[in-house]
Amino acid sequence: MDKIIVHGGAKLTGSVRISGSKNSALPILAATLLTKEPCVISRVPDLSDIHYMLTILSELGCEVERASGTVTVKAENVLTEAPYDIVRKMRASICVLGPLLGREKEATVSLPGGCVIGDRPIDLHLRGFEALGAAVRFRSGNVKVLAPEIRGATINLRGKFGSTVLGTDNVMMAAVLAEGTTVIDGAAEEPEVEDLANFLIAMGAKIEGAGTRRIIIEGVKELHGAEHDVIPDRIEAGTFLTAAAIIGNDVTITRAEPKHLKAILDPLSQAGFLISTGKDTVTLRSNGTGHPLKLETSPYPGFPTDMQAQMCALLSTVDGISVITENVFPQRFMHVAELKRMGANIELQGATAVINGVGKLSGAPVMASDLRASAALVLAGLKAENSTEINRVYHIDRGYESLDEKLNALGAQIERVKV
Ligand code: UD1
Fold first, then answer.
1. What distance in angstroms lies between residue 307's CA and the mean position of ligand 1's atoms?
2. How crowded is residue 192: how many other Cβ atoms within 10 Å of its Cβ?
3. What would the pLDDT profile of 316-367 be if each residue is shown by its tens digit?
């Protein structure tokens, strides 16, 4: 198991290329199950979560080939039960349910357990499948959905924490092959949902409104093979910009999509960092100091929960009182205890973190608990005096392509040690 040692204090300068989006690539790869013909997906990031998804597709009977960032999947004949051993490693495996149900009229996966960012129910996914005519059965830790036929329906997918991203993806993937029209109200508006819809449309699906709260899907008899380029990862982009803000100097992210980044750029700019955007670039200039903020997470186009931990790290180092409220996953504060070990002054009041900026952090051995919390610890380590040793680095490798190498290319001093 690797660990990462961040030697704090080195400024960041230069440009870094943003990878394809993990959260787009995962459901798009699952969507290749909808056709017997080959699909070619490019700009697929090299991450362990992607590796798990490709393994699941292989186990389901697909031919999978990967050449650097391009993945070809041919799902000529597929099984309908995803293997527990792999599914349990990644919650996003749940998004094979929709395409298998759409194509084979039945699918079984093991139920995702809770995870460190809280309870992760799938009731909304299942509510959507039931509305399309599927029966849902639970047995031995598995959930099975099956339907004699999938019929279009009007479905509201809004839950008590707002819309569901993978739930919207799943229902959309089942509905593209349904008999008749499906209307999804309360749909997630995330750019990753729109990216998936664009891939499905390239496969012959009829979808309108993806990227808005109402998606309308006209079922078709079958889909065909297609090629698709995954959109840039807005969370990776936001993480590099926050890294630049925390320690200082000029960093430009390239091959990014500035229009997906507004909710991240606005607070960074409000905190006093200078931002300029180009067609597919964003530059952030920082002298390592900023102003405190009041922020809350919410579904897109709001400030993303996947940037909350990194923003907590930044605001821990900014003089004054900042307040961040987590509305999407109210328990997602595992990074707080670790940041406090590095000298941060953060008080949790329910789902709100009250951060009293301390200017300086100090290096400490810390434990990565989940993907974005780990990124927050790396960012804190950039600013900390001395060295920060981050254990359980596999969390970072699940969702960031070579985070340490990319930061080092900008001037950071990060070592990866095999333990
Ligand atoms: C996706 C992202 C994840 C991001 C999250 C919210 C992927 C692979 N993952 O996860 O990085 O943090 O969106 O932007 O794209 N909920 C229910 N019932 C359900 C489903 C969800 O109550 O059936 C709740 C969740 O507990 C949470 C909220 O709805 O409070 C949003 O979750 P959701 O959008 O479904 O997250 P994911 O799609 O799993």
1. 14
2. 28
3. 999 999 999 999 999 999 999 999 999 999 999 999 999 999 978 999 999 9
Catalytic-residue membership of 115:
yes
Specify the residue with its C-alpha closest to ligand 1, atom 31.
164
**Which tokens is 81 given?**
């039960």
Q: How far is the CA of 22 from the centre of ligand 1 (A)?
A: 14
d(CA 280, CA 277): 8
Q: How many residues does the chain have?
A: 419
Confirm or reject: Cβ of 167 under 6 Å from ligand 1.
Answer: yes
Please tell me the distance between residue 123's alpha carbon and the centre of ligand 1 in angstroms: 11
pTM exceeding 0.90: yes
Secondary structure letter of residue 180 according to DSSP = S
DSSP state of 393: T
Residue 40: burial class (beta carbons within 10 Å; 0-12, 13-18, 19+):
middle
Contact 117, 141 (CB under 8 A): no
Question: CA nearest 323: which of 286, 348, 342, 289?
Answer: 348
